[in-house]
Amino acid sequence: MLKLYADPAATTCRPVLLFAAEARLDLEIVPVDLMAGENLAEAFARINPNRTVPVLEHDGFRLTECSAILKYVADLISSPAYPYQAQARARINQWMDWFVTLFLQDYNYGQVYARVLPGYALAEPGESERRAWHLARARARLAVLDAALAETGAFVCGRQITLADYLGACFVTLGELIDFDLTPHPHVCRWIAAMKSRPAWAPVHAAFNGWRNAIQAQRQNAA
Ligand SMILES: N[C@@H](CCC(=O)N[C@@H](CS)C(=O)NCC(=O)O)C(=O)O
Fold it and tell me: The pTM is what?
């Protein structure tokens, strides 16, 4: 039995939920409401001492880290989104590592979380310079992604969807919380539109879209 502790709005949970929905995995979802601080409870810390989601459980085997979880569940069903051929798999791993290291640092943390999550912006002089520094780096990362997508003309690693697309598209769309302008990156825009047109995208993103709409409404009211 596969069980996923997840907050459906969370960036690290959405890729797993999207892949699971498309693959029609028999996955029990255990909701962990991050906004309510349910991840901070001692009971949850016994499940994951990092107090983060997602966490996968499979017949007594417990796994954290969204990238590792995606790879594990893809292997369970021999998914074509994570082929066994060494170079194809290495390329997918390369991009997944890229998203969870280089991209996440400058874009998710340096731009989005710093604006929408209390505690992620440093209340000290230099915060706006820090954000500007991350913005330049985030733009450079997006330019690299854009060039890769221009070359494939379809998905991150080629003509077929892979785990890198599930992970990456969910990370990039986090920018909707701050109305991040992706238009300087036309191939990224085209790829995001393609990912969003997949039938499972909208139902999986209901919670995230609700969060985004609430933040946008707040911003409009404050303006
Ligand atoms: N490296 C982990 C990061 C997990 C993570 O930071 N999850 C966030 C949600 S996107 C979380 O649970 N945050 C709660 C907190 O940090 O208090 C992964 O890739 O799964």
Answer: 0.96
